[in-house]
Amino acid sequence: MQRTARTTLAGIVAGVALILVPIAPAAGAGPAGGPEPGSVAGRAAQQEPNRSESKVKDKVKHRSKASVADIAADMQPGWNLGNSLDAVGEDETAWGNPRITEELLDQVRAQGFNSIRIPVTWTQQLGGPPDHTIDPVYLDRVEEVVGWALDDGFYVMINIHHDSWQWVNAMPTDHDAVLDRYTDVWTQLADRFQDADSRRLLFESVNEPQFAGSSGEAQELELLAELNRVFHEIVRGSGGGNATRPLVLPTLHTGSEPALLQALATEITALDDPNLIATVHYYGFWPFSVNIAGYTRFDAEVQRDITDTFDRVHSAFVARGVPVILGEYGLLGFDRHTGTVEQGEKLKFFEYLGYAARERGITTMLWDNGQHFDRTAHTWQDPALFEQISSSWTERSGTASSDLVFVPAYGDVAAQSLTLTPNGTTFEALLHDGAELAAGTDYTLSGDQLTLSAGLLERLAGDRTPGPADELVVRFSGGVPWTVRIINQETPVLRAASGTTASFEIPTSFTGDLLATMEATYADGSNAGPQNWTSYKEFDVTFRPDDAAGTITLTPEFFAEVNDGTVHLTFHFWSGDTVRYTLTKSGTTVTGAP
């Protein structure tokens, strides 16, 4: 996964014109297909009546795919077995995931995934020069997992993963040693897997290539081109199925900026090989993806970043016959916590991303480091999220301006409106506990404005105790229904606190509300804390709400870049309420008061 992010908005959206060299088209290029998704429960419970017969049919189907474009399309959708064989440590459990089992892969396949990317970090398994021999026990283990996946009918992609930042990145200053090591690793992998299925096992040259100590981007692009050429020569010259095996080549950083796409397009043209696939990664418009700078909503700017990115990738490759695999996608904030982006905004992001990729024939592979599919229970941690993702493989879903409606915990209850975004579907009904509510009484629909009546909201609010009260479901003519949470709420209360820069918590009564973001400024109005180009701080990095504990934690990372003196905080909640709070910092001592 790409863990570095740009720190200024100017670097996020490229506005440079893209000039592309011609690329010989591959037969069969076109939009990627995928299975018709059913319910999450249905997929999880799916049992194949004859497992071995099914695997044989899968293999026959895969062998019938003639071109690399057909193969890439047939790989849709894909899933990453992240933070396992790529974990940096003693073994595949070093980063907290259980040991991979055949049953796990069976269960992932049953979710509707047609391809699996198996990231592998080799560093700790390599001997020294001159041969850099891979530990045979580890190589056997990788081969075992690859074999299970192939037997399940998956297309499988393996690579050199975190090695990219562990030693490959030293190429600018230690060119020959790095190239020798890289050559030795791929020579061994090509030899070990030369007889594996030549259409269903893919090799990816290196994950998220990056270089340290270079003279600049131009040199880095040259070094990546060299790595890709060496990789290509090793694999193609190793015999067996490697003569025609699909090879996956990344852009620098697996980024999608015009210059990076142009460079890879040039490489692919020069290699003149019909069995090449381009790969990029996408983790969204960065401020939204990590919840910083006030980007809490999936707005037009966030959506446009998806559209512009995928348009560039499509123009650079797919439109010219070179298939593209989105080797990883998700939200960068997930790297810390899946709650960094509010649930409804998150669902809108994944709904649109799946649609945008599908329309442009880009194969998608969900990054999962264990946060999404539970590798022990074999269930989805967030079934609603997966329902939205899987639906986007084949159809659009209607959404709304929010999935939250807050009702005051005391006083009069007023009607409230949501703006519907049907996304090509039509509104069919508003449901409560599966029953259709009455138009004109419980709600009204005028254009795209769905208004919930005061009477309906008062009924759903119950005794008005702060917190979740009930749910409504908006049913559209297709896709996943949109769930609206009715929440009783009062303005949150923050209390005085004292602590240190290493440990500071604000006692908080959330009273049903949800924290969206936090601003920090000095007494003179200038921005305080990290990323001081914005007053809005990064969620879960600088501040962290805990509803169950009744606290908001300000992290050591926040205080590390806060000057002594007074800091004014403004907490923005999803109800629309704001609460101000004042800090006083003196050395490592911190006090706070509302």
TrEMBL record:
It comes from the Bacteria. Keywords: Carbohydrate metabolism, Cellulose degradation, Glycosidase, Hydrolase, Polysaccharide degradation, Signal. The keyword rRNA processing does not apply. Residues 92-372 form the Glycoside hydrolase family domain. Residues 1-26 form the signal peptide. This is Aryl-phospho-beta-D-glucosidase BglC (GH1 family). Residues 402-486 form the Carbohydrate binding X2 domain.
